[in-house]
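Q: Hi! First time doing this. I have a protein sequence and I read that you can turn it into a structure. Is that right? Here it is:
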Amino acid sequence: MPEPLLEVRDLIKHFPIRRGLFGREAGQVRAVDGVSFDVRQGEVLGLVGESGCGKTTTGRCILRLIEPDSGTVRFDGRDITRLPRRELRPLRRQMQVIFQDPYSSLNPRLTVGSMLGEALAIHGLARGAKARTRVAELLDLVGLSPDHARRYPHEFSGGQRQRIGVARALAVEPRLIVADEPVSALDVSIQAQIVNLLQELQRKMGLTYLFVAHDLSVVEHISDRVAVMVLGRIVELAGAEALYRAPRHPYTLSLLSAIPVPDPERRRSRIVLKGDVPSPAHPPTGCHFHPRCPIARERCSREEPALREVAPGHVSACHFAEELAEPGVLTRAPAVASQAPPVPPG
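A: Yes, that's right. Below is the predicted 3D structure, encoded as structure tokens:
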């Protein structure tokens, strides 16, 4: 088994809540609250969860676009958490990001050729004619024409702009790419094209991805393993096939039940969670998911579940993860979860 390229241990990032005329701290938003995982060389790890669970902040802390409060991030065996900026800069070449919004992530005042050439110049990879040749190669690699180098971002569609974002990440020949919801702002048909492009580039270049998303159907298509987050914590991590076939956390089960089935003849029982999503500024005691959990018991409100192995390579932070292997356990749960009526065809 390949050695981990990226090792994250006990990563924490809290944002202060400031109020009043003098901006005094009145609390903290626990965006990332003790996250740990590994990503092996050549692997795609999907990081999923609903909006506000901390997955984007996790990715940005790993790249040190946001400085973490504590914890360690090791890249290729080297602790990069406290490296000074001067020593961190060479590592930027090996760790790149694809941003969620293809509109705001590109400089509207630069041509595509200038943007890609800037990355090459900053890292001393190419200048002049050599840089122009490399820019043409990058555009061809992501399915664009070399002539597009003379155009500005506003002259492209959303899917084309995201291809430019991918080309910019590839320009410096990275080993790890944090893809921060790279398809969520695109039409469904374009999403498939970008996901297929990322898979093809991984095969060609041996890339490693941390793929951040909230769409589980997309994550299933591209990921080798999947980690599920709730309010700043990972609650389940397993191989993609095992997690989709036999999830061992109630939150994962509810997410999977919400995936649309593209067949009007097939009906799926939805698990509808009651109550509001708790605030990350005031997370519940014990298990963060217990106020909405279909199988929550008294123990869940007072005792935080440890992330433990419940099957080979499959970890879950649920006191009753073993019970979830029983068919229909959530549909038998009293009152907390309800079954939504099936949607009629058409």
